[in-house]
Structure formats: C-alpha cells, structure tokens
Amino acid sequence: MSRTEERARPPTMADVAHLAGVSHQTVSRVLSAHPNVRASTRAAVLQAIDTLGYRRNFSARALVTRRTLTLGVVASNPTLFGPASTLSGLEAAAREAGYMVSTVMMRRYTAAALEDAIDHLSNGGVEGIVVIVPQRETVTALAGLRLPFPVVTVEGGHDLPIPSVSVDQELGARLVTDHLLAAGHRTVWHVAGPPDWLEAEARVRGWTAALEEAGAEVPPPLVGDWTPLSGYRAGQELAGRVASGSARRRSGQVTAVFVANDQMALGVMRALREAGLSMPGQVAIAGFDDIPEADFFTPPLTTIRQDFAAVGQASIRLLVSRLEAPATVATENERMVIEPRLIVRGSSTSS
Amino acid sequence: MSRTEERARPPTMADVAHLAGVSHQTVSRVLSAHPNVRASTRAAVLQAIDTLGYRRNFSARALVTRRTLTLGVVASNPTLFGPASTLSGLEAAAREAGYMVSTVMMRRYTAAALEDAIDHLSNGGVEGIVVIVPQRETVTALAGLRLPFPVVTVEGGHDLPIPSVSVDQELGARLVTDHLLAAGHRTVWHVAGPPDWLEAEARVRGWTAALEEAGAEVPPPLVGDWTPLSGYRAGQELAGRVASGSARRRSGQVTAVFVANDQMALGVMRALREAGLSMPGQVAIAGFDDIPEADFFTPPLTTIRQDFAAVGQASIRLLVSRLEAPATVATENERMVIEPRLIVRGSSTSS
DNA sequence: GGTTTCACTGTGAGCGCTAACAATTAGCCC
DNA sequence: GGGCTAATTGTTAGCGCTCACAGTGAAACC
C-alpha cells in the first residue's frame, strides 16, 4: 500500500491462477465446483484464493453469463405493515432462490413515479421485477409499459395480462362481514381505505356482497386513508349514529363496523371510546391486517390475517420460473391467490 | 421472433451505431452526454436507440468502469417501525445520490448470519454497505471482519473503528425520564428492550443517568423483547406494584413507567387497564419511537420521535463520500449523531 | 504394444462497454 | 489560400470472466 498508488485493485482470477501455478480456467472450475479437478489442484487453488483474498468479479461474470441474478422490487410506503411484511417475504424467498434484491420505494403513486422507479431498476441490471404498488393508477400505467424483462405484480388485481399474486381481499372482507352478521348485527358499517387502492376497493366489494347475500342493508361506506387519524374522524362520524340510551337497533344505526385496516380501526375505537361507547357492547369492531399491536388494543381487535411470507414466496416463484424456463416454453400468465384468515378477538364478541 | 431462435438478444451499442451510421463510440458519447457531438448526429443516434429500444448493458458498463453504483444494506426485521423507516430513508437518499440499493434482511442475529448476509451482498457486487443490525453480537462480529469495501453502521454504537450514524438513544431516554420526574414522580420505572440490543442498553443507561442525577431511586428494570406481548407481561408485573387504595406514593411503588418502545408500551397499558388502573392518573406512561399509532392509544402516548429519514441520509452521505473520495484523501472515521425529540401526549400529563 | 477412453488441464475468443488516442473535418485568422 | 485550432468522429485495446474446444497424460482394453 504505497502512498502514491491508487486504491489497490482487487486480485483477479489470473492472479490466483499464477500463484497456484495453474491456468485461470482451472481456478474458474474450482469456483464453479466443476467435478473434474484433482483434489490437490483444488486445494492449491483454494489456498491461493485464501491468501489473496480473492472474490470473483461480479460484473465480469454477469457480462459473460448474461445473468445478474438480481431481481428488482418496486415497493410502496414500507412503514405500513402489509408492504413491509411482503417486502420481507420477497427478500427471503429471493435469497433462497439465489437472487439479490434491489428495492425502490415509491413515495408518490403516479404513473411517472412508477416509470422512474422501473427505469432505475432497469439501469441496475435487474433480470425481472416484482411490483407492489396496489393503486389503480400505477397498475394501469404498468400494464401500458412494454418491458424487456418479466414482471410480476403483487396486489395488482388479476385483470391485467401480467402474472400476479394477491391475497383474496374480497374473501377477507366477506369473512369479517359474515362474522359480524352472524353475531346478530342487522348490518355492518364500513370504513374503507383510499379509493384509488385496489385493496380498498376489493374490501368494499367483499363487504357489499356479503351484506347483499344476507339481505342486509348496505350503509354508505366512510372513507379513510389507512392512517389512524382518518379512522378517528370516521369514528366520530359513526359515533353520532349509534343508538343512544335504548339499545333498540333501528335501521340506519351503527352496531357493527368493519374497518379496512387495523390502524384505522384503532382510530375508530378511540373516537367511539371518547364518545362513551362500549365495545363490543354497543359497537362491535373488526379490522384487517392483524398488525402485531392488534391483539393488545382495548378490546383486542378481530381482524384478518394475511400470509405475507406466502405472497413473497409465490411472487418470487412466478418470477424465477420465467427467468429460468427455456425460451421455448410458453409460460402462461399465472395468477396466484392466497387465502386470508379470520382472527376473532374481543372487539367483535362479548364472550 | 422465430419459434426456433433463443430469447432474442437485446440490441447492443454496435447495433445502434450501425443503424445510426456512426461508430459505437459516438453512441457511447451521446449516452454519456458528452458535449462534443453534433446535434444532428445526436438526433440520429437517439432515433436509432428509440427504434431499437436500446438500453446500455449494465454489466459491461460496470466491468469497465469498475462501478456498479450499487450499495448494500443489511437490515433486520422490517416490520418494526424503526428499521422500516430507516430502510426507507436509506433508499431515498441512495437513489438521490444515484445509487441502487440491494437489501438483505437478517432473521437471526448471529455472527454467522451477518457474515452470510454480507457475503451475499458482496457477491452481488455492491460497492459499500450500510449495516443496521443493532445487536451486540452482530456489531462485534462486524468489527472483526476485514472487508474490501467501505462499511457504515447504523445504531451500531460509536466504539468501533467504523463510521457510524445513530440516534442519541441515551438523550432520548433522559428526555423522557426527566419529563416524568418533572411531572412530580418520585422515580420512574423502566421496561427495557432485549438486552442484546445496543439501543435497549443505551436507553437503560440514559434512564439510569437521569434518575441518578435527580437523586431518584433506580428501580430494577423489567425486560421485554420489543413485542406488545412482552410489554403486557411487564405491565402485569408493574400493576402489582401500584399503590392500591390510598394514593400514597411510597418507595417501591410504581407511578411512572418509561417503556423502551411504543409497541411494548401498548402492552403495558393494556395490562394496567385490565388491573383497573387509570392512566395517567395512577400511572404515567411513556414510550419510544412515535409509531403512527401512538397518538391514538388510550391515552395518547408520550414518546420519543427519531428522525429516521435523517439517519438514512447521513449514512448514505458517509458511505458515498468514501466511495467518491480520491484514494489519497484519508477519510476519518466520522460519527454522526441525530438528536431525538420528546413528544408529550396524554399518557404522561393529566392536562 | 497400440489403441481407446477417460480424467484433468490449458488456450483462445469474446461478452458489451469505456478510455485513450488517432484521424478527420470544419472554422477561422491573416 | 495556407496554416492553425477546435470540434467531431473513428480505431484500438482491454475490463475479468466463462465457454468451447484442444490438448495432455494415465489407465484400460484387446
């Protein structure tokens, strides 16, 4: 390490070969675990690798093999429980399959931002991407792009000619709604997520369908933006519609609320409590997501649990199968649907 | 796209050059925004690029420039608010600086797992890494590694000869503790995070110091693992030590609790409520992190807010400065400390 | 013993790009 | 119009690796 020389170049395969007294190709064979290398040769090479601290050059390898073994992920706000969990599941599955994961987080959900994100990943040499941007605008923008690598969407709906993985949001909403109806409520109110989110929309659909099938009235849904604050505001609104004094359950009155995510449910609960209402006595509540906190709300929140690890695994499987399939095999546009699960807690049942 | 041919190879710079009637070098110049290219030539090249849908080959570029423009991040459980937010801040700052981010999430916090993670990133050609693994074991393991690229730690403490960024946890703990003491409490109890986490330890230190400086008794801290459940258990323990009946504040009795994170605080609050205790009337509570839910707990939680975006930015700045500094400039081991902020809410004040 | 067959190792080319330099053209001055 | 400079373009040589193929020697077979 002389003072004048540039940052020392890392050793190359040729350096290793020289030190071990073999050809660079033999070094390559050792590193690729090729069977036909004499044990003593292999040992010498490994020894040389060790003393030199040699590592294969990623770029050179990628150039000749045409594989970067890197997948891109376009994610959204990772402080929401769902996206964060999915991201984690994706990464685990990718690593398992031998791929790196490069992530881009979108802050605004516009078509332009999506293109920027994909462009950035594309410049980074990813072989394919998973897009978790479950807003209508970004999804349609994605459908309009012609990309030179495979794409898989998560929670992007199944209407697009793109392989997709999603949790059956509609089913989840039905499960909750049916659960509340079964508990004897005349109908179930709903605090929805932001209307441009497909998941929010699907939950509304499931809730509506469940009510209609049960012959229950469908009250107008309130709308939030996933945040506790928006839930709180919706809760104040709802509190005004709870039967006061007599427990007579008249039409138009709130006795049960399905909130589209747990964070908003927390806000709703707070507003109801401030209004002096008891839960589940006067109003039963249920959420969606099963965040770690949900079991410790007061009362513990009935909710829907989604298997995000499974979502991540499925997406990677879909993507990797496209990357590794021979070009001759036409891979159809698979759709994978993960079933959610109802978690019943004290917010919906008096027991 | 004939049926027999392999997956069509993407066009190369030579293809573009041929179509535009120039040399490949001119194409390169256009793409690198070199000034000395005639406008008409540039237009022709751009036209050819467009019709061919050409994109520069990442690997070939990286091979010759010796730059992958990719940073690695070793992160931990991203469903915790802090890590997720930091990751987000890192990614934003990296993109701003023109770098990709490859992420590896650790699931177990052992030295071996850390080495695996770093190895994986290293194989992916990262130019440097940010390690957010704030456990003692992983931090010491990291210190023992001799890596061929720059490393920056986040929340890894400042004892290591490694550039580091962290929030002043000790200060945060002092702020909370002082706040509670100022409210008239004789002393403040503590529910700590897992002992192998440096942050947990620093918060204990800050809490202890604040108490000692105020001449207050230092009660034995309870220990949790960041989860609401562990907080709940600690809360049950604490509930048994709250003065019952008379409000006399005797020594050894609990009137104020500083919980090392908001999730555990939620558990504590639930346990206290189940024990029929009022907050902040009988017991004042404060947390740490300021998760989005904290303002909607019952009562709203006094807590410490950390500027994770700033942490992310600082780490990237530190790392990138090392990558882009000429080798001759000796970059000292900088330490950056971000100051946290006390957020006072209803859980600690009766107003 | 000569041929055949392996197991093992080496040689050469080239992946697609950028950097350095060479070559050409155009612009400008007197 | 010659000669100079500056602008523009082309040529060549790798970056460090893997692939395809060509060797080499020793064991195996008749």
TrEMBL record, chains A, B:
<dbReference type="Pfam" id="PF00356">
    <property type="entry name" value="LacI"/>
</dbReference>
<feature type="domain" description="HTH lacI-type">
    <location>
        <begin position="11"/>
        <end position="65"/>
    </location>
</feature>
<dbReference type="InterPro" id="IPR028082">
    <property type="entry name" value="Peripla_BP_I"/>
</dbReference>
<dbReference type="InterPro" id="IPR000843">
    <property type="entry name" value="HTH_LacI"/>
</dbReference>
<dbReference type="InterPro" id="IPR010982">
    <property type="entry name" value="Lambda_DNA-bd_dom_sf"/>
</dbReference>
<dbReference type="Pfam" id="PF13377">
    <property type="entry name" value="Peripla_BP_3"/>
</dbReference>
<keyword id="KW-0804">Transcription</keyword>
<dbReference type="GO" id="GO:0003677">
    <property type="term" value="F:DNA binding"/>
</dbReference>
<keyword id="KW-0805">Transcription regulation</keyword>
<keyword id="KW-0238">DNA-binding</keyword>
<dbReference type="InterPro" id="IPR046335">
    <property type="entry name" value="LacI/GalR-like_sensor"/>
</dbReference>
<protein>
    <submittedName>
        <fullName>LacI family DNA-binding transcriptional regulator</fullName>
    </submittedName>
</protein>
